[in-house]
Design goal:
- The chain is mainly alpha-helical.
- The chain has one domain.
- 80% of the residues lie in helices and 0% in strands.
- Helix 1 runs antiparallel to helix 3, helix 3 packs antiparallel against helix 4 and helix 4 packs antiparallel against helix 5.
């Protein structure tokens, strides 16, 4: 039962990253690149390709629990950069926009906390990492 709950928790956790890559960034690559350019991100096409790689590889790694600490580190790196570049609430003057960016900033901090916990403790019950460790 604990393994099932843990697997479901990892699924819910990474769904945002996988959907971001597969449902937004890949199909809207050129539009996302232009948005990144407008936000002042250097080499936006290259960094977007890297972000997609980090989102998919990190998301799948955490989901199945294989090399989950590395996968969580990829997602943490993505979150740090995305939070800095796109949720800079301190630069907004419009109260509604500032509030929305503050919410997104705080959501990303919470996700960063989850990634740090995985880096510290691993993916837990129901993970391939745990299953492989038992075989050794």
């Amino acid at each position: 039962m604990n393994a099932c709950i843990n697997i479901l928790g990892r699924f819910f956790l990474v769904l945002i990253f996988l959907m971001s890559a597969l449902g937004n960034k890949i199909p809207r690559f050129s539009g996302t690149t232009e948005y990144m350019r407008a936000e002042g991100v250097p080499a936006p096409a290259l960094l977007l390709a890297g972000a997609i790689l980090f989102l998919i590889a990190g998301g799948l790694s955490v989901l199945v629990g294989y090399k989950a600490k590395i996968g969580a580190a990829l997602l943490l790196a993505f979150l740090i950069l995305a939070t800095y570049w796109f949720h800079d609430f301190w630069t907004f003057e419009d109260a509604q926009a500032k509030q929305m960016q503050t919410i997104n900033f705080m959501k990303n901090l919470a996700l960063m906390g989850a990634m740090l916990m995985i880096i510290a403790r691993g993916a837990g019950a129901g993970s391939l990492d745990r299953r492989i460790a038992k075989l050794d």
